[in-house]
Amino acid sequence: MTAGRLSGRSVFLVEDEVMIRMMVADMLEELGYKVAAEAGDITEAMRLAQSTEFDLAILDVNVNGKVISPVADLIKAKGCPFIFATGYGSSGLPEQYRDRPALQKPFQLDALGKTIEAALRAG
């Protein structure tokens, strides 16, 4: 499965669970995307969001008990599209970002690919 002409784009991945982050990174590569950077905590995510070039971000909503909003705010200011990954459903999204695309964990490769393509086309 490839993401067509959108493949080859780069993704910034924020996920505190190492095994989930590795699995999502593998899924991204299988879809034809490259992982520009990965972060497992808010401080690292803030630094990388400011210093790394990427086409899209996938943000875990709850990173080590902290809400991802400050990172989402930085990425929004850059004008870059992002997707939330959550185990809490849409009600678990930060209120100001409930209009953003979200993947319900656990998600499958097909759902990830379709959500990324839609976000890149819209963004």
TrEMBL record:
Does ATP-binding count among this protein's keywords?
no
Q: Where in this protein does the record say 4-aspartylphosphate is found? A: 60
Any one GO CC term of this protein is: protein-DNA complex
NAD among keywords: no
Q: Name one GO biological process term.
A: regulation of DNA-templated transcription
- From the UniProt record, which GO molecular function terms apply? phosphorelay response regulator activity; transcription cis-regulatory region binding
Query: What protein name does the entry list?
Result: Response regulatory domain-containing protein
Which organism does this record belong to?
A: Bradyrhizobium neotropicale
Taxonomic classification = Bacteria, Pseudomonadati, Pseudomonadota, Alphaproteobacteria, Hyphomicrobiales
